[in-house]
Amino acid sequence: MTHTIESTHGASAQAWSKEVMKEYLNHNPFYNFMGADSNSLIQTNEELTKQPGDAITVQLRSKLTGNGVTGAAALKGQEEDLIFHTQKVEVDTLRHGVVLKGEMSEKRVAFNLRNQARDALVDWACDRLKNDIILALTDTTVGRDRSRYIYGSTDANWDDSHATALAKVDTATDKLSTKLISIAKRKATLSGDRRVRPFQIKAKDGKYEEVFVMFAHPFAVRDLMEDVAFREVNTNSSVALAESVFVHGQKVKGMWDGVMIVECEDMPVLAGAGEAGADVTHCVLAGAQAACVAWGKKTNYKEDSDDYGHENGFAIDEIRGVEKLVFNGVDHGVVNIFVASQED
Predict the structure, then answer these.
(1) Which domains does the chain have, with CATH numbers?
(2) pLDDT digits (tens, 9 = 90+) for 257-305
(3) Strand partners for 263
(4) What is the pTM for the complete model shown?
């Protein structure tokens, strides 16, 4: 079915661009984890909106490892070199549009088709950015290292072959649990030469707290919510039942051991990849600088008229890139967790 709207609307398209950008980001489930500083889970970069180029280089400064000097010992000759790791994030044009035709069709509906076109494009842009971030965070082709991966409930399931390790995940012992969350956190904070830094989040009292964030598929969350320990920690008897996460079903399912659990229905399900053909879900525990979103041009909303105003088009476009941050061949801010997650 095709539609059209009045053609006398182009003058307001520029003002709509700002509204579209704001709505598009606010509706994205990762928006609250995005920020320009290095303490953000998803670091944003807008330098290319002000200068030419098709890529931006993200830098990571390694911590100093030397012991320094004490007392009267000479510092000259004992200095330490600064070591930087870099990653280039490429950007490219991303566009989509809708076309509305037929003036008679407009008379058959009581709603504003122009608003519907804008809202549809905002929804599309939101889903596209969300999916691009998930694809980046769950990319197993780069950054794969034992210090950043856990298959099921034990590190012993690791194998140099990703497929072989997945095949060890079984439905009996390898579901998402409080125990596994703590294991993943310890892997983030203790494993490897470079540790995963926690993400800073603003608490109700205005202070900042350091947490990790785990994004998990609803099947994995279902198994976690059956964990007695998780239920006890995240159910407060002094709070009305209607406020319980087990009732209202919000995306943030609670906390365990300094890890915020966020339900995300678009996390990958690897059908038949586990032991005896079990389905395996890829969850991620993320800290600071897990990924980067770089913009070369902010989201722009455009309107166009053709065929003497009979055909009207609406478009949304931007220039951006999304990549997981990987330094020295190791995921910088992500621990990959693979758990059994059978369908209901």
Answers:
(1) 10-63+82-138+292-326 (3.30.2400.10), 146-290+330-340 (no CATH)
(2) 999 999 999 999 999 999 999 999 999 999 999 999 999 998 888 888 7
(3) 216
(4) 0.85
